[in-house]
Design brief:
Ni,Fe-hydrogenase III small subunit; alpha/beta; single chain; 4Fe-4S; 163 residues; iron-sulfur; NADH_UbQ_OxRdtase-like_20kDa; 7 strands; five-stranded parallel beta sheet
Amino acid sequence: MLSLWRKIRRTGRVAEPAPPRPAGPPLGAGASAGLAGSVQVRHVDAGSCNGCEVEIGSAFGPVYDADRYGARLVASPRHADALLVTGPVTRNMAEPLRRTYDATPAPRLVVAVGDCARDCGVFAGAYGVAGAVSDVVPVDLEIPGCPPRPEAIVEGLRKMTGR
């Protein structure tokens, strides 16, 4: 057991270098210069199958570590700068999504994560679906994929923070 601890101490912390910065100005620069650098994110599940939630968990986990780029998950929309919305908007979630959007202080960004949030994906035309996220609230950034890879989610968050 001691030999393992010695090896860990000798090796130290090992991390991969960060990928290059996303091209162009930060996404929030047009809305507010104060948004760039650090973004508080509120996740809203509008009716997804939870595939995107697993990938969001990975994006904020220790491997991809979105926190190091200035994006942090918060529990309240009142503390958020951006909404990360997954899934097609169901009839029962249309009004709560609007209320969450209204509760988020301006300037705010909305990110549609996954194909279902972008265009209803495989749920298009279903009886319980009200539409895509852009049909309910204005969307600033779309992240494609079913589900999107954690790298794509982190890249979208980096576009918001400019890091």
